[in-house]
Design a protein that fits this description.
By secondary structure, the protein is an alpha+beta fold. The protein contains eight helices and four strands; from the N terminus they run βαβααβαααβαα. The protein has a four-stranded antiparallel beta sheet with strand order 2-3-1-4, sandwiched between helices. The model has no long low-confidence stretch (mean pLDDT 94). Bound molecules: ribavirin triphosphate and magnesium ion (MG).
Length: 156
């Protein structure tokens, strides 16, 4: 007999520049936590791309530091799939500040691999809306790629 399966959700994760030497251990933890990795790429953000990705934080005191940090080296971006993936991934990475994480959530990825409240090893989308936006940012849909190519053709 057919049983109702729980709804799967997608989220966007990033291994930040400070943790790119720990990709193996972090991917291992992702699999151990039961996620499926459905897309993945390594890249280095330009300042413009980092500005766009973190637009919600523009004007905050930590914004300039965040942009410099996130463009300082390669990152690994991935789409995770699983039941309640958005909240679950945020739980696996732990509190924003790695120092706090080491006190309250010592097995979290930020506790294990991050340094402080800026260099904190990993990112995770914080809502359905931001997950959709962030997945599209790193892995544009075919339609969006076509549209962009059309624009490029118009220009040349
Ligand atoms: P994320 O977006 O990277 O998953 O982290 P989050 O939701 O836990 O934290 P958020 O408030 O969205 O901040 C984004 C990133 O900015 C850096 N940050 N620096 N110096 C500071 O006070 C400070 N506060 C935040 C961190 O890299 C944080 O992950
Ligand atoms: Mg955030």
């Amino acid at each position: 007999r057919c049983r109702l399966s729980q709804q799967k959700e997608r989220t966007l994760g990033i291994i930040k520049p400070d943790a790119c030497g720990k990709v193996g251990q972090i991917l291992d933890a992702i699999f151990q936590s039961g996620f499926k990795i459905t897309k993945l790429k390594m890249c280095q953000l330009t300042r413009n791309e980092a500005f766009e990705f973190y637009q919600e934080h523009q004007g905050k005191t930590f914004f300039d530091g965040l942009i410099s940090f996130m463009t300082s080296g390669p990152i690994v971006a991935f789409e995770l799939m699983g039941v309640d993936a958005i909240n679950k991934w945020r739980e696996v990475i732990g509190p924003t500040d790695s120092c706090e994480a080491r006190k309250g959530a010592p097995v979290s990825l930020r506790a294990r691999f991050g340094k402080d409240n800026q260099q904190n090893a990993c990112h995770g989308s914080d809502s359905l809306a931001s997950a959709a936006r962030e997945i599209e940012f790193f892995f544009p849909s075919v339609a969006a790629v076509r549209q962009n190519t059309a624009k490029l053709c118009e220009c040349t």
